Amino acid sequence: MPLALLKYALGLGERRRHFPAPQPLKKRYDVLVIGAGGHGLACAYHLAKDHAITKVAVLDKGYLGGGNTARNTTIVRANYLTEEGTAFYKESLKLFENLSSELDINTMYSKRGHLTLAHTDAALRTARWRAGVNKHLGVRSEVVGRAELRKLCPQLNLSCEVRFPVLGALYHAPGAIARHDAVAWGYARAAYRRGVDILQNTEVTGVVVEKGRVVGVKTSRGTIAADKVLQAVAGHSSLLANKLGFRLPIRTVPLQACVSQPYQPFLDPIVVSGSLHVYISQSARGEFVMGGATDPCELYNTRSTLEFKEQLMMHILELFPQLAGANLLRQWAGLADMTPDFSPVMGKTPIRNYYIDAGWGTWGFKATPVCGKRMAECIATDTTPALLKPFALSRFENFALVGEKGAASVGH
Prior knowledge:
By secondary structure, the chain is α+β, with helices and mostly antiparallel strands. It contains eleven helices and 19 strands. Strands 1, 2, 9, 10, 11, 12, 18 and 19 form an eight-stranded mixed β-sheet that branches. An eight-stranded mixed β-sheet has the order 6-7-5-14-15-16-13-17, sandwiched between helices. Strands 3-8-4 form a three-stranded antiparallel β-sheet, with no helix packed on it. Helix 2 (38-51) runs parallel beside helix 7 (180-192), helix 2 crosses helix 10 (368-381) and helix 3 (83-97) packs across helix 10. The N and C termini lie far apart (47 Å).
């Protein structure tokens, strides 16, 4: 038994609250963050830590980390297709590696290696393209053939007697997984200890704007004044932006996933197939975490479907036929906020002092550390960091899109 746990049980250690008790609303804050997911909490933490802005409140209509942060599949990688995307996620990957020490919590960060399978010549060409961009920016990625695949993932079915034979793969050695709720809890606790208020069960019903500038928000518990506001509400981004009178180029669709019962560890790397629209990894607890493509129609609903499960399992069993007897434990869905170029929207909005963090689609979790750090810089200085400039909302007016569709782990 760890000594700290024994001391706590005997009442000998310091008993500090992991999270704050419910708090009354204050009348005013320097910064309000709408959304207590990983991104919102990380931004609040960095505002306090890096910029000494501690009069900050994080608001959420539900509970801490209960939205998409609780519904993702925990993959961390930086093997993107564009230079802008690769540089952005390279910094996030670096921050993830030291996150447990920084937040004083075990995020269960585990390097596994990430394999993006290629079933066609076109997919192999895209893999070579991505590997070239990655190497140019100092990110470890390389194209491997079937012989290397047998060594990296001997459990993978490389038979040519299947419908979609594997020709090769993009191998991203730093690819990893981390515990999603530990990341959210770690940022929340670290922010709270620096003076940030976390207000759960506090729904934002409107934003107060005067002369084109945000001055506060209306909530289910009353109105709060603020100098600056960050919107980080994932799949509900368009709905909140509509209340302020500006449109986002976002369509919201459910993204489903499922997990098996725990089994003896046998799959080390993360395996992805964009052609088959599937991905699979094995968690530290032995569960197989599996997901696929987004649903075809726009919907603000996190229901799960039998159709998704049947299509997913058909392709999973082609890659790993030995899982035919595995039992599914649960199935769920999140809300993916998809942009036309499959890249996020970060930074300033047409409303002065109102900032946005949206458009993450299927890869918001892996951006949590870098987004928190750079959005905090953007809010504190009211200038857009170089790393965020390519992802400005204005790019859709200027036709300067950042096309990341080729780096999607699954089909959209």
